[in-house]
Amino acid sequence: MGTFEYGHERKRIDDADLALLQDLVAVMLRRGTPFLLSFQHEHDGRDSLWVHPEAPMRFQFDGEAPSGTDPLHLDLMTAYARSDEGVTIRVSQWA
């Protein structure tokens, strides 16, 4: 489990999902495209963030960052990020 920090928000996310999120953020912000990112919590609903380049963010992996994100999975996530629905990631707990 790693940690995604966005401003004052902290989310605990599986390292593989965190690596995919890191790649997605890099792709979207490199294109100058902010997007909606939602977190589905195990027991208490979901919350959302508007991801844009001005917000401070940090990706901290508990282990080594998994390498080799599946390009098809990243393409699918990018398509969701560009949609009105945005991207939803399942998280296990608040950090």
The percent range for helix content is: 25-40%
Counting H and I runs of at least 4 residues, what is the number of helices?
2
- The neighbouring-strand order within the major sheet is 5-1-2-7
What shape does the CA trace take? globular
Specify the biggest β-sheet: 4 strands, antiparallel
Mean pLDDT: 88
The tally of beta strands, per DSSP, is 7
How many angstroms does the end-to-end distance come to?
Answer: 10 Å
pLDDT < 50 stretches: none
- Estimated structural class: alpha+beta
Task: Write structural notes for this entry.
By secondary structure, this protein is α+β, with helices and mostly antiparallel strands. It has helices spanning 15-30, 71-82, and strands at 2-6, 9-13, 35-41, 46-51, 57-60, 87-91, 93-94. The chain has a four-stranded antiparallel beta sheet with strand order 5-1-2-7. Strands 4-3-6 form a three-stranded mixed beta sheet. The longest helix is centred in the N-terminal third of the chain and has 16 residues, at 15-30. The chain is globular. The chain starts with a strand and ends with a strand. The mean pLDDT is 88.
